[in-house]
Amino acid sequence: MIRSMCGLVALAVSGHAVWAQSAGTELNDTQRVGRALFNQSCRVCHTSPALNAPLYGPALTQDTQRGKDDVLAEIIRRGSPRMPGFEYEFSADQIGAIVAYLRAIPSQALSQPPSPPTGSRSERERQQREAD
């Protein structure tokens, strides 16, 4: 029981980090750099720290800013009224890597959070076998 709860917490906290494996999508080198930078500076506001916790900023996906890379890069660089700019922390290439990473995240990846397991362990195992 404790292991499954720990797994759920890890899944909820690492929503951006896990989507690629679950979707079967492989990140390229630039996107991996962008993911590392996102996790370093953006994740604290743009991902939920727990299943029922609110976000400080919007969830970011490939549809953010209607898919306009230059607009998204400018927001990351200069900031917005609710977000600090990162022009002195990240180079243009690093900001481009973050944008490339965000463009790899499908819109539906964050729209359906994982549901917690219900029932007994044997019931969950039976449901998993039926799903496979």
Task: Please describe the topology of this protein.
Blueprint: H1 2-13, H2 15-23, H3 29-41, H4 43-46, H5 69-78, H6 92-103, H7 108-111, H8 121-131
Helix pairs in contact: 3-6, 5-6
Explain what you see.
This protein has 132 residues and is mainly α. The protein has one domain (2-131): Orthogonal Bundle (Cytochrome Bc1 Complex, Chain D, domain 2), CATH 1.10.760. It has eight helices and no strands. The protein has helices at 2-13, 15-23, 29-41, 43-46, 69-78, 92-103, 108-111, 121-131. The chain is globular, with a radius of gyration of 17 Å.
Rg measurement, Å: 17 Å
At the fourth level of CATH, the homologous superfamily is Cytochrome c-like domain
Instruction: Report the strand count.
Output: 0
Class from secondary-structure proportions: mainly alpha
List the total number of helices: 8
CATH class: Mainly Alpha
| Spans where pLDDT lies below 50 across 5 or more residues | 1-24, 110-117
Average residue-wise pLDDT: 75
Please write the string of helix (H) and strand (E) elements. Answer: HHHHHHHH
